[in-house]
Amino acid sequence: MARHGSSSVNGGRFTPPAAPKIGLYESTNGGASFTLVFSRAADVVDPNSANGNDFFRGGVTKIETDRTGLGPHDPTRLYFSVFDYGLFRSAAGGAFEQVFASGRRRP
Description:
This protein is mostly beta strands. It has strands at residues 24-26, 35-38, 60-66, 77-82, 86-90, 96-101. The strands form 2 sheets. It has a 4-stranded antiparallel beta sheet, with no helix packed on it. The protein has a two-stranded antiparallel sheet with strand order 1-2. The radius of gyration is 16 Å and the shape is flat. The two termini are 29 Å apart. The model has no long low-confidence stretch (mean pLDDT 80).
């Protein structure tokens, strides 16, 4: 199910109550459960506006893996884009670093 449920055409544009935080999730048990490992601020929903002012900022839109230059025991490197923030990659120790920043930033 998508974050917003149904489309904006039929009035489903608002983020559902108690929806999970948007970001990058990881499973270490074959998909039985997932844990949020990376997130950036999303738009704050304004229920008094026609569209909620909820425009997907902060959502992960693409994920790629890469093993270039890594040893056989090194973890696979992740690259992922975060809408309105830029491109990030996994770093040593489970951290993430920004590789490219989006040119358009909202306050």
